């Protein structure tokens, strides 16, 4: 009965005909105590419970954890469980570690601290190291990563447990963590679907926190990391116990709309779905554990979490049993969840591993490497947000005989920490009292104060502060000290800390030291960086992202110059440089051709300098941005001075309905008014407009129609680097670049075709002809429709509708009427030539060649491309053109062949595109 089984064979093995065994595999349960209790033993033996959740209350050390897990697995093995128990644990690092052992288990930064390093490789390595340590003690399932996006940072309990408030950044670090877990062989669990990043708390513990965002709003930001995690193979997903104002159910994990419709159908997740603990007060008091169990299964959950009381666990088991008896839940539904559970177990465990955990021996082998990784992570995460008066290191402003004052708030010790274990072991704190609470709050930063004193070899005064504010004792200490360090921990939720710090800052400004400067004040946030990120009046501000012993030791090193801090604030706080300068919001209006055309011409002239003969804007005027095509929805925006009618900024957008691509075509800002947020205001308004388009699927920087900016002008110049940084900070992934260029063939009168190209074309057997007018449109447009590149279809439609200066060259194989290639030719007489200003860059006659399309079945791609271009050149020669412009060329594969024909690169661009569904505007 204990032989290893594959998921497929297990699902149909006779052992699973016992519905009691099936039922037990669909519960995750916990227990009190550091040893196996009769209750948990009975749940495993009699009720066949297949998953155990361990918490900090169960664990004292790595050695004790290994013994406990092994005891649990032995009970399951002896009871005839076909597969080992899934042993789950929350080990998010930072302040959320269920397993703490300062000798064996490595402390790593919180999720937000990892994001502050800016390194997804570091995130992956940390996740792998964390998982390896858990696997060593027998744990095979980690409840992570946390994929919540802090869409509201001000009053959220998650804080640094999240990677941050930028959905793209949370996605990147979440996926990196998944990769690390997978490499270590541990099962993963994304949480807390559909997001705990913007909860509204109503007050009582019996009230369910509410997600006020609609499903559509969630999809734009909060769901992005969950979508990416599913794409990258997350094993399980925990659905929260919060309510949703847009969904009828009181709890997300009990809602079919959330689990089945949203998570399963819309996002395509087929892994294990875990419910929130059904014993949470807001759920158990309103619904009851038994009813909650049935509702959770009917909503689509596979694994029901009941982790507190034995009574509640029996109620849940009985509830499922009654649901089966009453026909509310079917056996086939249970087997569906069973399949998912057995698949996850087969990935992460076996009886061979479960009954022989490597324990301390393996942990010892990994310790040095993991400690080095921890030091690198903390050294890379500590962030000096501001140091306006250059107070750091403190040794520069404090002599050995001068006193440093440390002021710290009263906070609870982290569950897994040396302070917590010291309190638990102390008989002095065995009886609860207000005095005990005070002392336990003070002990958290006691060692930090001692470390400061040891580091500076001088006196450190240490006092706590509370909601009572600045007291006389504080004022006395402030007057006495030569510099002050004040610590805050989630001051955006504990408002007394904000008040105390601002009052303290005011006192320091009025209290002068010997050199007549104001008293030095260093503010340190040891949890959420949002406490004072925007409070620029606080001149020196440092963030550590957690207050574990390791983080505080790294902080000491930063304060005294032994460590150069390398961390940066999360998301748009870093990207938009909001900390260092205020961001103005400008009124953005729709472009009005009659009102703004002359002002735009004036603005364009400021971007064309006489010495820059290569400017893409030479020959460009306000008419160049108006396509006027029936399938292109174009809307342009301006920032203007309503009094003088001058334009300070101009932005173009085009939505190509044929491809579902929304394009940001150009942004111009008056060079004399840069760095005033005009570009940001235009960009954000333009993107919001494009994202509202029905069936928009991608966003793109750069467009071939109109052919002014095909993307971001690319070169090695400082301007190119500045543009790249600017677009990167406002949400664009600059790694998704498609290099394109425009090319020019000079001195067409002297140009001749090479004999080798003529021979290649003759051997290939292509035939070419030139057609005009809409009568030839259908077969040509059918070929063009094989590509989804924006603007291609529209260019052909414009060319075929133009009877003056445009045409289409077609290619066929000899004896076959099927069109296998096309290219557009046009000149300055074309009705749409104003959309390609490069045609008018000189007084010479320039012909244009645009948008070659070649059927996917053609093997001789390069030869046919050159043939189409050759026929275009010859046609322009006959029309007495002096040069030929190729307006959009893929730099990856075609430039060499075209250079061989005599073309020279005129302008290089990077066309940037991204998924519209995952694009997040910076807040």
UniProtKB/TrEMBL annotation:
It comes from the Eukaryota. Residues 24-343 form the Glycoside hydrolase family 3 N-terminal domain. SUPFAM superfamilies: (Trans)glycosidases, Acyl-CoA N-acyltransferases (Nat). Coiled coil: none annotated. Keywords: Glycoprotein, Glycosidase, Hydrolase. One of its GO terms (molecular function) is hydrolase activity, hydrolyzing O-glycosyl compounds. It holds the Pfam family Glyco_hydro_3. GO terms for biological process: carbohydrate metabolic process; peptidoglycan turnover. Residues 633-704 form the N-acetyltransferase domain. CDD domains: NAT_SF. The keyword Cytoplasm does not apply. Belongs to the glycosyl hydrolase 3 family. PANTHER family: BETA-HEXOSAMINIDASE-RELATED (PTHR30480), PUTATIVE (AFU_ORTHOLOGUE AFUA_8G04060)-RELATED (PTHR30480:SF8). This is Beta-N-acetylglucosaminidase.
């Amino acid at each position: 009965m204990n032989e290893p089984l594959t998921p497929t064979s297990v699902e149909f093995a006779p052992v699973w005909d016992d519905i009691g065994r099936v039922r037990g595999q669909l519960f995750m349960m916990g227990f009190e105590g550091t040893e196996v209790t009769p209750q948990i033993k009975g749940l495993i033996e009699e009720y066949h419970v297949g998953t155990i959740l361990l918490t900090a209350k169960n664990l004292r050390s790595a050695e004790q954890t290994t013994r406990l897990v092994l005891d649990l697995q032995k009970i399951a093995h002896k009871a005839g469980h076909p597969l080992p128990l899934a042993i789950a644990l929350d080990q998010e690092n930072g302040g959320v570690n269920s397993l703490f052992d300062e000798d064996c288990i490595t402390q790593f930064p919180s999720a937000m601290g990892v994001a502050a390093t800016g390194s997804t490789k570091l995130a992956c390595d940390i996740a792998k190291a964390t998982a390896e340590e858990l696997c060593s003690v027998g744990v095979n399932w980690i409840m992570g990563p946390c994929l919540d996006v802090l869409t509201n940072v001000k009053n959220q309990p998650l804080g640094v447990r999240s990677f941050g408030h930028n959905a793209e950044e949370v996605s990147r670090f979440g996926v990196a963590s998944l990769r690390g877990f997978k490499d270590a062989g541990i099962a993963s669990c994304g949480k807390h679907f559909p997001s705990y990043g913007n909860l509204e708390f109503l007050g009582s513990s019996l009230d369910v926190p509410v997600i006020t965002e609609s499903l559509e709003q969630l999809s734009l930001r909060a769901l992005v990391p969950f979508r990416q995690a599913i794409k990258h193979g997350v094993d399980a997903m925990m659905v929260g116990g919060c309510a949703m104002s847009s969904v009828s159910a009181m709890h997300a994990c009990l809602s079919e709309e959330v689990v089945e419709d949203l998570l399963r159908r819309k996002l395509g997740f087929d892994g294990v779905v875990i419910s929130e603990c059904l014993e949470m007060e807001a759920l158990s008091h309103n619904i009851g554990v038994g009813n909650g169990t049935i509702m959770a299964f009917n909503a689509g959950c596979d694994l029901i979490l009941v982790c507190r009381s034995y009574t509640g666990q029996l109620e849940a088991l009985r509830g499922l049993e009654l649901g089966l008896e009453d026909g509310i839940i079917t056996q086939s539904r249970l087997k569906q969840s069973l399949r998912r559970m057995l698949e996850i177990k087969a990935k992460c465990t076996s009886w061979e591993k479960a009954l022989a955990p490597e324990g301390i021996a393996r942990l010892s082998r990994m310790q040095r490497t993991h400690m080095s990784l921890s030091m690198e992570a903390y050294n890379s995460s500590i962030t000096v947000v501001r140091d306006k008066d250059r107070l750091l290191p403190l040794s520069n402003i404090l002599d050995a005989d001068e006193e440093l004052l440390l002021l710290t708030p009263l906070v609870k010790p982290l569950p897994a920490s040396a302070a917590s274990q010291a309190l638990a072991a102390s008989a002095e704190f065995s009886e609860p009292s207000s005095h005990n609470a005070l002392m336990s709050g003070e002990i958290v930063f006691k060692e930090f104060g001692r470390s400061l004193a040891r580091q500076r070899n001088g006196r450190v005064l240490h006092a706590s502060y509370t909601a009572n504010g600045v007291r006389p004792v504080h004022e006395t200490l402030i007057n006495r000290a030569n510099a002050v360090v004040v610590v805050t921990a989630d001051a955006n939720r504990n408002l007394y800390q904000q008040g105390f710090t601002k009052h303290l800052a005011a006192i320091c400004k009025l209290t002068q030291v010997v050199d007549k400067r104001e008293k030095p004040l260093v503010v340190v946030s040891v949890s959420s960086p949002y406490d004072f990120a925007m409070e620029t009046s606080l001149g020196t501000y440092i963030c550590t992202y957690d207050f574990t012993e390791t983080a505080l030791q790294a902080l000491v090193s930063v304060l005294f110059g032994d460590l150069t801090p390398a961390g940066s604030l999360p998301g748009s706080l870093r990207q938009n440089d909001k900390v260092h300068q205020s961001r103005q919001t400008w009124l953005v209006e729709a472009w009005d051709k009659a009102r703004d055309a002359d002002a735009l011409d004036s603005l364009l002239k400021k971007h064309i300098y006489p010495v820059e003969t290569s400017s893409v804007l030479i020959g460009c005027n306000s008419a160049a941005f108006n396509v006027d095509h029936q399938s292109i929805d174009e809307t342009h925006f301006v920032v203007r001075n309503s009094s003088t009618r001058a334009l300070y900024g101009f932005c173009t957008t085009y939505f190509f309905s044929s491809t579902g691509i929304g394009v940001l075509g150009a942004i111009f800002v008056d060079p004399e008014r840069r760095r005033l947020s005009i570009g940001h205001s235009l960009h954000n308004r333009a993107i919001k407009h494009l994202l509202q388009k029905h069936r928009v699927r991608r966003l793109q920087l750069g467009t071939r129609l109109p052919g002014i900016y095909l993307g971001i002008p690319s070169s090695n110049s400082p301007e190119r680097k500045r543009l790249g940084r600017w677009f990167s900070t406002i949400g664009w992934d600059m790694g998704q670049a498609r290099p394109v260029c425009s090319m020019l063939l000079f001195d067409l009168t002297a140009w001749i075709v090479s004999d080798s190209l003529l021979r290649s074309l003759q051997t290939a057997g292509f035939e070419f002809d030139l057609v005009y007018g809409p009568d030839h449109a259908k077969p040509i447009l059918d070929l063009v429709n094989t590509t989804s590149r924006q603007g291609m279809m529209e260019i052909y439609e414009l060319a075929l509708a133009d009877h003056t200066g445009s045409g289409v060259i077609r290619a066929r194989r000899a004896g076959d009427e099927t069109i296998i290639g096309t290219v557009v030719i046009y000149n300055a007489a074309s009705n749409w030539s104003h959309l390609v200003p490069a045609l008018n860059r000189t007084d010479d006659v320039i012909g244009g060649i645009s948008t070659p399309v070649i059927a996917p079945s053609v093997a001789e791609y390069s030869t046919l491309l050159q043939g189409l271009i050759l026929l275009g050149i010859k046609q322009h020669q006959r029309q007495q053109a002096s040069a030929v412009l190729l307006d959009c060329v893929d730099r990856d594969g075609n430039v060499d062949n075209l250079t061989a024909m005599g073309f020279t690169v005129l302008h290089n661009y990077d066309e940037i595109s991204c998924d519209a569904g995952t694009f997040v505007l910076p807040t």
